[in-house]
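Q&A log
Question type: sequence-to-structure
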Amino acid sequence: MKMRKIIGVIAAVGLVCNMIGVFAPVNVVKAATSTSNLSNATTISAGKTVTGSLSNKQKNKSYKFTAPGSGYLDFYIERAEVKSTNAPMWKATIYDGNGTVVCDATETTFYTNAVMVEKDSVYYLDISNASNATDEKYQITAEFTEYDNVIAEPNTGSTDAKSVSLGTTYLGVMDKANDEDYIRLYSDTTGYVKMSLKKYVSSSASSADWGFTLYDSEMNQLYNLTSKYQTDSLNTEGLYVILQAGKPAYVRISGSNNTAGVIYSFDTSFTPSSLVESEPNNSFASADKIKLKKTYRAALAETATGDYYVYKATKASKHVLKVTLSNEIAKAYRVTVYDKDRNPLVSKDNVFKNGKLSFKTKKGQKYYILVEHMSGYDSELNALYKLQLTAK
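Response status: OK
Response body:
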């Protein structure tokens, strides 16, 4: 990706830039349209340049691109020769194969926003006269960058969310400022997923602020993060979700004014484990059963009331509860142990990395454990924690 493109994609929506080498404004509207005016489109191939001009009779020309593989596509449009002192301006509109507008831009010399494409998918580029472009010669270059795994449209909700292979890095892009990409996480095996969202091109001048929202299999929001990505070091590395076998989770990546055209990467890693929390476990009634000497892993949701666990003592003895937070955690947790009548026995605040609590049990009695965010610390990164109970 050339630097002039990287700089250009951060242009504000509606801002007209008349400087050569600066990207055009992007004003994307995803509205259905007929493909009839595209039926006579001229074929343009990856890496090829075509030339043309518009007359008073021919107001626009269309070009058809068929993706040779998965990756991302953009078009570079510029003036082919100088015929007058007035700078011509062309409007370039990209349509998908169904005739839906993906993005558009207007300028003299400019890149269109990148579009994620899959092999054999069809896209159209329509060129029209914005101003002073009659009989002015232009040239268009189709620039295609191959990448095996992309989050291509449509993915507007849980029903058509992009299913990703865990352990694989995907590329995506916001077609417009208020665009949204939905991603589906799934495994036939229970375990936990670590996720990372960040800018794909580290040299980009954009301070992209994507929104990141995680949902369970029923589309109940688990947590939501925004404005975490101003630099390459501030991103979502260290976000986790527990996957139960056969039950998906969903991620929504949403755009803002400075994300249109900025390519992001979404990466996951999956660790199979049967010793994980089972949501919902946010009350005494829905508490997860745990056993001695087993290490359980869980991710406390931002909007959750806490994770509850229940243990039935097999003997009267001193028990030690250990809670270990992952390295990514930035805020404190509170851990509390309750007796069978749900009266608090012992509590520990400000657990950052490691926390130990000791309590005495009676044989056959139930004990509840609550892990929760400290008050005022409920909007930070959601990280993995480990919980283990042992008896002396």
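Response note: The longest strand covers residues 122-131.
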